[in-house]
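Minutes, structural biology subgroup

Action item carried over from last meeting: produce the structure token record for Cystathionine gamma-synthase (Mucilaginibacter mallensis). EB confirmed the sequence was re-checked against the source entry. Recorded below for completeness.
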Amino acid sequence: MKIETIAIHAGNQKDETSGAVIQPIVMSTTFERAADGSYTSGYIYSRSANPNRTLLENVLAKLEHGVDAAAFSSGNAAGMAVFQSLKPGTHIILPDDMYHGLRNQLKALFVGILEFDFIDINNTEVLKQHIKPNTGLIWIETPSNPLLKLTDIKKVIRIAHKNGIKVACDNTFATPVFQQPLVLGADLVMHSSTKYFGGHSDLMGGVLITPVKDDWWVKIKQVQEMGGAIPSPMDCYYLARSIKTLPYRMAGHAKNAQLLAEYLQKHPKVEAVMYPGLPEHPQHDIAKEQMLGFGGMLSVCIKGGEVEARRVINSLELFTQATSLGGVESLIEHRASVEGPDTKTPFNLLRVSVGLEHIDDLITDMEQALSNY
Ligand SMILES: *Cc1c(COP(=O)(O)O)cnc(C)c1O
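Output recorded by EB:
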């Protein structure tokens, strides 16, 4: 089945007792046992499993061409489950341009437990130099946040697997609509479902998806169940509901982002636009090779510095100045000031989550903000 069909059907189950077309929300924390003490429904206690989470995990696994998924209460909880599933002393290689929240999590919570290096993962020589006997995982994030750099997924996987190392991919920016890392050979996919999966800036969640139920996956499911950072039945329901429109929303985000990127690129007050769909993007060829579309995120460097960039933000009316991304409404953010003192993000860079408003209205708003500064 095609992704539009999977998105609508794989996360839903009609209710046999009432005839309801849409699945009920099962709020119960506990499930009745039979006379002999067995659990006839298969459910025991909602931290271990809940019908709404089962449906959500089913659609997530199918969307990414995996065999199983684990849903968490946030993207960072999903990332943390990966790190907690590794043997203490394991060495991880990560990109130097990655989601700052997970980089900070490793630096704050895993010092002395895991070893990690943040490197330019696309540089094959640098990558090979950093592989050590205890390297167990290479983490990639593509397109990256906020520089929209791409990682050649197949190339990294080839090097990793030759050395017996697993590869996990943060697929939040692309979503399975535009990029399917498990099909390219990755060993794990991670998402912040707070972003495009949720799609309406009103729920938090994270997910992991596996291509095999191996020992590593068993460990990850243990962290989910025993750690307990699980989403509520309500959140699972809303997420499965949002996912039904994911393919159509992504098509709209990508169309708007492409047109906004092309408009910004020609503007005299713009120094640079980072968007993988532009032929001028240094890795446009990799994007065409491994992506089915270029996504809804772009970054723009305004001529001048932080002052000029802030003036543009403050003149915009439709774009809201706020962090996060992937909602139907357009957001814009001065990224360097969010990321803290060790940021490598340029101070004139604005990250844009291009929403689903009409593109003419978005461009008109940009036009007036850029002409004002
Ligand atoms: C937001 C984000 C995360 C973290 O997810 P939360 O839901 O905020 O915990 C991880 N990776 C990327 C790429 C993100 O954008």
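Discussion: The first strand starts at residue 68 and ends at 72.
Next step: EB to file the record with the rest of the batch.
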